[in-house]
Specification:
Blueprint (H helix, E strand, L loop, with lengths): L5 H4 L4 H14 L9 H24 L11 H11 L1
Helix pairs in contact: 2-3
């Protein structure tokens, strides 16, 4: 189970990260030098780790604070109340 900060967990989907990692592995399959299933599993795990690190970096360095994000629905409701 992947444990992320609540605001970040709402934006990152574990299945999307796994899918991206598998796409990366497929694109770079010629770089795999192992021979056993355990070595393949380790290689895939390293790619997943790198993919997750990149996704976390992407979502935390975009000049926005994940904790400061607000719900669009809440903002619309507040706007409607003011009207």
């Amino acid at each position: 189970q992947l444990a992320l900060r609540p605001g970040l967990a709402a934006r990152l989907d574990a299945s999307d990260a796994v899918q991206q990692a598998l796409l990366t592995a497929q694109a770079h399959r010629d770089q795999f030098r192992g021979r056993t299933p355990a070595e393949l599993a380790g290689w895939l795990k390293a790619i997943l780790h790198s993919t997750l690190a990149n996704l976390i970096r992407l979502h935390t360095q975009e000049r926005r604070d994940v904790g400061a994000e607000r719900s669009l629905e809440a903002d619309l409701a507040a706007s409607s109340r003011r009207l």
